[in-house]
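Hey, I'm writing a tutorial for new members on how sequence and structure tokens pair up, and I'd like a real worked example in the thread rather than a made-up one. If someone can provide the structure for the chain below, I'll link this post from the tutorial.
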Amino acid sequence: MVVIMKVIKFVAFLFYRYYSTGGTRRIPYFSTLCALAMMLYIHLFQILILINRVDDIIPGGGNETRPVKYLKMGLFFIPIFLLLANVIRKKELEQMSYDKVVVRKGYLSLVGYLILSFAVLILLILYKKGKL
């Protein structure tokens, strides 16, 4: 469990560092939490697709209006976001530092990991719909 938390905090550091520049430099902490929550939800969706339970757990129906669907998805997103906010503190991210080589390898690994995660999610969706 300790190793997993170290990895999550390192990934949070990478996102925080990335979001501290450019258009998101005013909200790097919020952007970091959103990116981490999205990563966790990608994995949750992968698991739900594998066990065929997406429709049972993910809120939303075919006859709901768009604002209602957005509200339900927002409420579904909040618990993981709040959990991450309690585990990963802004001050902790600001105080973290790593060697440039470690950060570069981390960025490359993170990009590869995200591409692989999206590819697996897409393949699972196609497989479950019978198009693969």
